[in-house]
Design brief:
The chain is α/β, with parallel strands linked by helices and 246 residues long. The protein has helices at 3-22, 28-42, 59-66, 78-87, 124-133, 195-204, 221-224, 226-232; strands at residues 49-53, 70-75, 92-95, 108-114, 134-145, 152-157, 160-165, 173-179, 185-191, 207-214, 238-245. Helices cover 34% and strands 31% of the residues.
Length: 246
């Protein structure tokens, strides 16, 4: 999906997206699954200067500010940024593309990219920019969908439902339908990369992999979202990578 398309689509869904993420206990896939894993790898952020790439509506910004970090955020969608600003009036947010960052060299201790890098086809540009704006020994923590699980398809055989891995080695644009209310759907797309490509990108961009975690749902999700909990305690839907400038 071209960047302009991503921007348009997030502009359309911004309000609904934020509502789903913030009402009640939040959205299973983020609040119960991806966020706990990524926050764990971010570790103690007190006093750290953090840049959030693809910051969305500033949900991470709010949590990390409460934990004592100094946050800045950038996102390609103006509508997502509008909400982020409203929710975090003291935080500096910018509209922009994560592969062309309007920040000084060596400005940040940590860069975060939660479920945003998969919207880009070309990751070297992002890693180059991340390396430029990170301090020496700075950390880049990013989450993605699991490279194997994202290419699993549901198939029927002799009346039974099966999940099979299809075309793992074919790096391509994957499409998903998201419900956006009043019976309408929107097609969201993101790029599938193999484990090999992700690890090569990390290494060739001058980083070393220092930690990795498969997302596992929070215990409280068992009662709140029993179906999702059962499925995603069996398979890793997301993963978080922690890499360090060499
Ligand atoms: C799934 S949302 C995640 C939002 C936020 N990181 C979170 O976890 O709450 C993905 C976000 O990435 C942003 N995004 C996608 N491509 C981008 C790009 N090239 N540069 C900056 N932001 C981008 C989208 O606009 C969207 O807000």
């Amino acid at each position: 999906m071209k960047e302009i398309e991503v921007r348009k689509k997030y502009n359309i869904i911004a309000k609904r997206y934020h509502k789903l993420r913030t009402r009640g206990q939040g959205w299973f896939y983020n609040e119960m699954l991806e966020m706990p894993t990524t926050l764990k790898l971010l570790g103690n952020v007190k006093g750290k200067k953090i840049l959030d790439l693809g910051c969305g509506t500033g949900i991470y910004a709010k949590i990390l500010t409460k934990k004592g970090a100094k946050i800045k955020g950038i996102d390609i969608s103006e509508e997502m940024i509008k909400i982020a600003k409203k929710e975090n009036p003291k935080v500096e947010f910018k509209v922009g593309n994560m592969d062309n960052l309007p920040y000084k060299n060596k400005e940040f201790d940590i860069i975060l990219a939660a479920l945003s890098i998969n919207y880009l086809k070309e990751w070297y540009g992002v890693f180059k920019e991340v390396r430029r704006v990170l301090k020496n020994k700075g950390m880049f923590v990013f989450s993605t969908s699991n490279p194997v699980i994202e290419v699993i398809k549901k198939r029927m055989y002799k009346g039974k439902k099966f999940r099979i891995v299809e075309d793992y080695f074919k790096e391509c644009l994957l499409k998903e339908k998201w419900f956006i209310g009043s019976g309408k759907k929107i097609t969201m797309s993101f790029y599938h990369k193999t484990y090999g490509t992700i690890i090569k990108t990390i290494v060739k961009s001058g980083f070393e992999l220092i930690d990795y975690e498969d997302a596992y749902p929070l215990k409280k999700a068992k009662k709140l979202f029993p179906k999702d909990y059962k499925l995603w305690t069996n398979m890793p839907y997301f993963c978080t990578w922690k890499v360090k400038v060499k």
